[in-house]
Design a protein that fits this description.
The two termini are 12 Å apart. The chain has 3 helices and 12 strands. It has helices at 15-18, 83-104, 160-179; strands spanning 34-36, 42-49, 53-58, 61-66, 71-73, 76-78, 110-112, 119-126, 130-135, 138-143, 147-150, 153-156. The protein is elongated.
Length: 195
């Protein structure tokens, strides 16, 4: 997750922030603490804090913000922009990410597992619903929402091992259908995306 790039520190806040204590090092950014916008509207709780990036759960969306944009006000923790400005920034970030992903999902592009170290296959084709991934063990269709971009390029939300198991399961089901054999039991757990 990349930090939302906003000019938060330079943005002028309202009177509530004018009374804020600006020293971020003295502000407690505990997980679960409620965060407000510059107008005092509650945004949501802090979901995580690694010391430099603070993730706020903002209406079901994750807003990754630099730790130095938080201040203590009479209402509690606050940032220097409004909820509307944060929504606009998150919408733009999502649109930019979708456009970059669209550009990356071209035939022949290498796809890495969620850890980013192993190439698990290549894009054979992509449409609005899914991506056909070609591997040395065969092809498998993966939902489009499983793909994202990293510094190393195109990746999917499965580890290399999970993806290999899914490809083997798909190949086994296809072979069973071709021979009329019973497919794998339905109670077998399917690979799940890595968190």
């Amino acid at each position: 997750m990349t930090s939302l790039s906003l000019a938060l520190a330079a943005t002028t806040g309202t009177a509530a922030l004018a009374q804020a204590q600006p020293a971020a090092s003295t502000v407690k950014l505990d997980v679960g603490a409620k965060v407000h916008d510059s107008e005092g509207v509650e945004l949501g709780p802090i979901a995580s804090n690694d010391g430099s990036v603070v993730v706020v759960d903002f209406g079901g969306r994750q807003a990754a913000l630099p730790a130095n944009v938080f201040a203590q006000t009479d209402k509690g923790l606050a940032i220097t922009i409004t909820a509307a400005q944060l929504t606009a920034a998150l919408d733009k970030q999502a649109a930019d990410a979708a456009a970059a992903l669209e550009t990356a999902l071209v035939p022949g592009a290498e796809i890495r597992g969620v850890g980013g170290t192993s190439v698990v296959g290549k894009v054979k084709s992509a449409d609005a619903d899914g991506v056909v991934v070609a591997t040395d063990k065969g092809e498998v269709r993966v939902p489009r929402k499983a793909f994202f971009l990293t510094e190393k390029g195109l990746a999917m939300s499965f580890s290399a091992d999970q993806f290999a198991a899914a490809v083997a399961e798909t190949a086994g089901a296809s072979a069973a259908a071709d021979t009329g054999a019973d497919p794998a039991p339905a109670n077998e757990p399917a690979p799940t995306p890595a968190g």
